[in-house]
Amino acid sequence: MTARTYYATGVLLLLTGCTMAPRYTRPDAPVPAAWPTGPAYKAPATTPPGKQAADIPWQDFFVEPRLRQVIELALHDNRDLRVALLNIEKTRALYQIQRADLLPTVNGTAGAVIQRLPADLSGTGQAKISRQYSVGLGVSSYELDLFGRVRSLKDQALEQYLATEEARRVVQISLVAEVANAWLTLAADRERLKLAQETLTSRQESYRLIQRRFEAGASSELDLRQAQTSMEAARVDSALYTAQLAQAENALNLLVGAPVPADLLPSALGTITATQALPVGLPSAALLKRPDILAAEHQLKGANANIGAARAAFFPRIGLSASFGTASAKLTDLFQPGSAAWNFTPQITVPLFDTGRNLAGLKVSEADQKIAVAQYEKAIQTAFREVADALAENGTLGEQLAAQQALTDASAASYRLSEARYDKGVDSYLAVLDAQRSTYSAQQGLITVRLAKLANQVTLYKVLGGGANR
């Protein structure tokens, strides 16, 4: 009865799959429950119940059709995302390898041993040839997982696989945001180049007008040289933005993984409505849906499972080897009655003295678990900071845009007045140049702020965990 009890207990432990890993408890988020408030933050948008950025597919968030098509191309051809997908396949296979250790591996075998014994080694004094043939099924070194060591290793491999899947989602979120920002930057560079070329044309006309006035004696050589300086500065900007535009196209092509068709490239930035409004009135607990935080949590769970494997190393390890088949001296007699052959080899290994190896292994796994906790908490803190930064920018960009637009309008009016005063001989040409430069700088600044406002919406969508769903 005692033997049967032990046997039943062992089978029960095996079937229930107990492990010695500590019970997992998610650490508390080391950040405030609500987003920051203050002068830099505007009132959060009204959020429908349960509505989060992570629940909004990128196809719905990006409303510009050309941009959606470019993102789709990138998700198909980008090499970083392709590597992430291949890493998922790799870790899935590694998990399947580790999971296979839970069940015995059965191998079919067939073999023959033919040997010649010389006369002086033969018991009959005559040289002879012996033959032995065998066919069978065998189980080699199967471990009875009574203390959950193999199961803990399987759990660790599973968490690693799940972390890799979340890492793929991180790459996709980043890719969607980078493609959107690169596409918008290309639109801004096109508008900057257009403005620089228009400014160059205008300043060339001004230079020719001043040159004729100089030849007629109505303007000084100083006015002529100042007009020439302004024209050449515009020529420099035109060349600079031409190169910058080509570089922006190259950057977009690299992100997409293939040349972007010309009909999908953006026009001027001012004509683009790229995204829909994004609700952000959510508690910071929404960050727990971010795939980088989920990946960090899977790594933490894997480290937790490793403690179970390290603890199980202190207990006996039972291995089984067995085979069953037939054996015969003649190939034709392999399946005749009486040719059955089998062996059963159980083995138990009890750790007695390992110079502290198992204890050190446990300390390593416990330290790894504490490191994983710190990394998980740091991931949450980093995510909170990214969202807070994006919200601070979002809360002030509307005011920046309004102020920049007013500055541009005022500079343009000042430029027109300066030209009129110069034409009437009231002011010098230097006042015209100052107003001209101020207007051009304000117009370039307006493009920059418009780009920043659109890019902020993309960044906010990214840091809130949007863009991972296809």
Q: How does this model look, in words?
A:
The chain is an alpha+beta fold and 470 residues long. The protein is 60% helix and 11% strand. It has helices at 2-16, 58-61, 65-77, 79-100, 149-215, 221-256, 291-312, 357-423, 429-463, and strands spanning 106-117, 128-144, 317-328, 340-349. A four-stranded antiparallel β-sheet has the order 1-2-3-4, with no helix packed on it. The longest helix is centred in the middle third of the chain and has 67 residues, at 149-215. The two termini are 60 Å apart.
Q: H/E order of the elements?
A: HHHHEEHHHEEHH
Q: Sheet with the most strands?
A: 4 strands, antiparallel
What is the number of beta strands? 4
**Which structural class do the helices and strands define?**
alpha+beta
Whole-number mean pLDDT = 86
Beta-strand share of residues: 5-15%
Number of helices: 9
Terminal-residue CA separation: 60 Å
* Anisotropy-based shape: elongated
Helicity range: 55-70%
The parts where pLDDT drops under 50 for at least 5 residues are 12-16
Q: Rg, please?
A: 37 Å
Strand order of the largest sheet: 1-2-3-4
